[in-house]
């Protein structure tokens, strides 16, 4: 059955408010605002879909260099499904390119049980805003194997390739590519 989720929050969290809880609710402070989102969802024969929109009324500086302050907004869609034992996830998103450094996003992930592990592969592209001077799209690909241990504990070794990661420590956000190997631990209860 379909449904609707609504969210209203401050545009700033505790770390943005000098650690004072009372400032979380002062939406009239300079530069602050509200974050609101609405998401519709529903089920289809082999999965779930979600479509949403969000708005952030905090002051955002325009990327074209003009002195105007603007709100930020975005739209997104998510679908999860499967065929046989294979599971998939698709995500799409758009944001206001006049203030968001990332104007669009698309990602797909596939998972397949294989003996003692669940094997997964994913690829994601984050598009630089057309208003961002010198901006470049980012691309990330990942392979992983999730092993279910005992009592809800999971260990997931992974290998990622990221183009234009900005993770090289040089201060440049245009590093051409980087390889990252890691291990994630999880607990499901």
TrEMBL record:
Q: Which GO terms describe its molecular function?
A: porin activity
This protein's GO CC annotations? membrane
Which top-level group of life is the source organism from? Bacteria
Could you provide one GO biological process annotation from this protein's UniProt record?
A: carbohydrate transport
Q: Which stretches are transmembrane?
A: none
Family annotation (Pfam families)? OprB
Q: Which family does it belong to?
A: Belongs to the OprB family.
Q: What is this protein called?
A: Carbohydrate-selective porin, OprB family
What organism does the record attribute this protein to?
A: endosymbiont of Ridgeia piscesae
């Amino acid at each position: 059955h379909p449904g609707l989720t609504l969210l209203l929050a401050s545009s700033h969290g505790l770390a943005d408010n000098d650690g004072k809880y009372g400032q979380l609710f002062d939406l009239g402070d300079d530069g602050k605002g509200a974050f609101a989102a609405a998401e519709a969802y529903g089920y289809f024969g082999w999965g779930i879909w979600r479509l949403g929109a969000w708005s952030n009324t905090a002051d955002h500086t325009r990327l074209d260099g003009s002195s105007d302050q603007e709100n930020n907004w975005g739209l997104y869609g998510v679908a999860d499904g499967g065929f046989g034992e294979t599971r998939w996830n698709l995500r799409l998103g758009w944001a206001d390119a006049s203030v968001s450094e990332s104007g669009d996003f698309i990602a797909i992930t596939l998972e397949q049980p294989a003996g003692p592990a669940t094997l997964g592969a994913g690829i994601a592209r984050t598009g630089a805003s057309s208003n961002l001077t010198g901006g470049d799209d980012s691309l990330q690909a990942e392979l992983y194997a999730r092993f279910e241990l005992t009592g809800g504990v999971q260990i997931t070794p992974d290998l990622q390739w990221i183009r234009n990661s900005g993770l090289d420590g040089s201060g440049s956000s245009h590093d051409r590519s980087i390889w990252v190997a890691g291990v994630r631990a999880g607990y499901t209860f």
